[in-house]
Amino acid sequence: MELLKERIRKDGVIKEGNVLKVDNFLNHQMDIGLFNEIGREFKRRFADERIDKILTIEASGIGIAAIAAQYFGVPVVFAKKAQSINLDGTMLSAPVESFTHKRRYEVIVASRFLRPGENILIIDDFLANGCAAMGLCQIVEAAHARVAGIGIVIEKGFQCGGKLLREKGLRVESLAIVDGMDAATQTVQFRD
After folding, report:
1. Any idea what the CATH number is for the domain that residue 89 is in?
2. Which residues are annotated as a binding site?
3. Is-contact 69 49, C-beta < 8 A?
4. Which residue ranges are tagged as binding site for 5-phospho-alpha-D-ribose 1-diphosphate?
């Protein structure tokens, strides 16, 4: 998706440790026009799949998933990173380690929101080591639903996440795959 790649080149900031900061338009301040194009592109890429719900993880995936859901005409469910008094009933959970935050979470979804036999599209902003996507897949499987695909806005192709998910037979559609980046020159190399 050229529009996204251009925005990463223009507004992305590369930090040491393979961190690509895109908080100016993706995961802190959100460019809704860009999100509309991202949602439209996910719908195009998954047009051959029946999607019943979109699943994401708080917090950065929620805005993207909500805009994309308009194109699919389905609800969004998001995995929470903490138990609260508002959560009741049977819960599905999975461990997730965040590359950016260097923290381990137990993500939680109320089982009533993911029904057996449903086709679930997982959407997230980044794919690095694949921990968040794997955790969400575990939750979908525990619900006896089906992972119809995984939509990623930015994949770090030089990290193992995409490879691991694809080797498991999961369909991963990434809108921009970064093959390399240099903090000193602030340059990003994309896979074609």
Report:
1. 3.40.50.2020
2. 20, 27, 128-132, 156
3. no
4. 128-132
